[in-house]
Amino acid sequence: MFERFTRGARATVKGAVARAERVGADSVTEEHLLYALLEQEGGRAAFAATALGLPDRRASLDAAFAEARRRGGLTKADTDALADIGIDIGAIVSRVESAHGEGALAADRGGRRWWSGHRAFTPGAKAVLENSLRVALGRGDRFIGEEHLLLALTAKPGVVADVLAEHGATYATVHRALYGPDADGGQGHAKAG
């Protein structure tokens, strides 16, 4: 599939790997893909991200991702569903952190990379890459560009899509920023997955 990626999309994937290495993560996540996209300049995704104000909200994005990691990677939907049955995630996180230290529930705390030197992609990051192909094909595009990666990040339910939505970047708003208000949403099968 990587042969279908444009130069910019390849740079984004390589940037995500480099970002994972810089922060000492064991694997490449959707968050790393998003930040690598935000570091790209001059492409359609960079234009859409700028139009939506994402680069100007890096501190807010950082805080939202840190809070999600603190909750053990639970999405807003997960937290709300648990609250509906009487489980207060905030209280659980506080109790765990009081017993085991701040960030005790954070994912990707290290451990297995020492022997391989290789950072695999998480299942969620792989799903984003696969979904970017669906997005591209759904639009009739032969190649996968950064814009398809950005749309795939907003389409895949999870922490990254939640954080992006909190910052005004939903599938619909990103699509409008990329293709204009009159463009067909292409959301049929492109969002599946």
Automatic annotation (TrEMBL):
Domain Clp R: start-end pairs = 2-186
In terms of Pfam families, this protein maps to:
Clp_N
Protein name per UniProt: Clp R domain-containing protein
Q: Which organism is it from?
A: Streptomyces griseus subsp. griseus (strain JCM 4626 / CBS 651.72 / NBRC 13350 / KCC S-0626 / ISP 5235)
Q: Which terms are listed as keywords in the entry?
A: Repeat
Cross-referenced InterPro entries = Clp_N_dom_sf, Clp_R_N
